Amino acid sequence: MATAKKAAPAKKAAPATKAAPAKKAAAAPAAKKAAAPAKKAAPAKKAAPAKKAPAAKKAAAPAKKRTPNAAFMKALTPSAALAAIVGAAPLPRTDVTKKVWEYIKANKLQDEVQKRIIVADAKLKEIFGKAKADMFEMTKLINSHLK
């Protein structure tokens, strides 16, 4: 029974290519070697098309630097609760988020097991409105304290 299973791949019809005779010749000796079941003949792989055109395109066009969205760069005034952490000066949303993360990391307010959970202290509890917040909802909670 074991020899019948190994002989089955050799009986399949190969697609009409130039490499087909070589494949049949390689498959026939593999079918005769039923005593060595450790190795199997791998099917022939098609050659990948050359990708010279995209590489030339990348080299020819210089990369443009991304410009930040104006809505993120607009300076906003933080509320009194948020100003206790980031300062009272108007800041863009991106800088507010960076400063809140600096505060969280300096005071070790991330949960030890689940790093995305932030355990709020007294200052953050005023901003979040709850004892724990997920890092993905943190920006939503902070945005309500910006004008």
Automatic annotation (TrEMBL):
Residues 71-147 form the DM2 domain. Signal peptide: none annotated. Transmembrane segments: none annotated. It comes from the Bacteria. Residues 1-67 are annotated as: Disordered. Gene3D superfamilies: SWIB/MDM2 domain. Residues 1-62 have a biased composition (Low complexity). This is DM2 domain-containing protein. It comes from Kinneretia aquatilis.
